[in-house]
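Hi there,

I know you've been waiting on this one. I reran it after we fixed the sequence typo, so this is the corrected version. Both the input and the resulting structure follow.
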Amino acid sequence: MRLLIVEDERRLALSLAAGLTAEGYAVDVVHDGLEGLHRATEGVHDLVVLDIMLPGMNGYRVCAALRAAGHDVPVLMLTAKDGEYDEAEGLDTGADDYLTKPFSYVVLVARVKALLRRRSRAGGSPVLTAGDLRVDTATRRVHAGGEEVTLTAKEFAVLEHLATRTGEVVGKPEILEHVWDFAYEGDPNIVEVYVSALRRKLGADRILTVRGAGYRLVAVESS
C-alpha cells in the first residue's frame, strides 16, 4: 500500500517515512499543504498522514478540499495543538483519526494499520485469493496450499500488489511505483529480485513472466 505524508517538519517527515517504509509501505513525502492537496487528489494513495500547521494551506483546508472533491482516502491528522476543539474541527473537515504531537511511533503505526483495515472492510474482504493462495491484507499473513508462508515486508508488498490484479499483467514500473515510491532511483531490477524470492517461497508456477510486459499472478491449486 502507498501512503502520503504531508508534514513541514522535515526531520519528522523523513523519520516517519523511513519507519513506515520498513513496515512495507511505499511512502511519498511533501512539505506544504498545496502540494499535499495536489498529490492526494491523484488517487494513488491508500492513506494520508496530514499535519494541520502547514505552509500554503493548512491541514483543515486540505482535508476539507479533498472531501469536497469526493476523495474518500483515509486521513490521519497530526497536530502540535491539544484540546477538544482542535480534534472536533479536524474530524468535522472529514479526517478519519487524529493524533497529537508528541506521539509514540508505535501508536502511529497502529492507527495507520487500523485505518487501512477499516477501509478494507468497507471495500470488501481484506483477503485476496488466487487459487489456494490467500493474502490477508489486514493481518499481513500469507497461506499457500494451506501452509503459512513467511514473507518480508517488501515481499508481501509486491505479492499484495500482484494479488490485487490476479490474472492481469502488471508491469515492472507499476510495481516500482506502488511498492517503492516515486522518488526511487535504485536499480529497477530490484523487482526481479523480489519476484524470484516469492517464486522460491510460493512456487515458481504462481508468478509468470510476460516477456517485455511484466508479471502475472495466476491461480494454482496444489495437489
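Quick highlight: Residues 29 and 65 are 19 Å apart (CA to CA).

Best,
R. S.
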